[in-house]
Amino acid sequence: MTAAPVIALVLAAGRSSRSAPHHKLLTADATGTPMIASTLHAICASTINRVVVVLGHRATDLRNAITAQAPYTRPLSTIIAPDHATGLSASLRAGLQAIAEPPPEAVLICLGDMPTLRPDLINRLIARHRHDNPPVTIPSHDGRQGHPVLWDRTMIPRLMTLEGDRGAGALIRALGAQTAIVPADETIHEDFDTPARLERFAVSRPQQGG
Question: Distance (Å, rounded) from C-alpha 24 to C-alpha 16?
Answer without folding.
Answer: 6
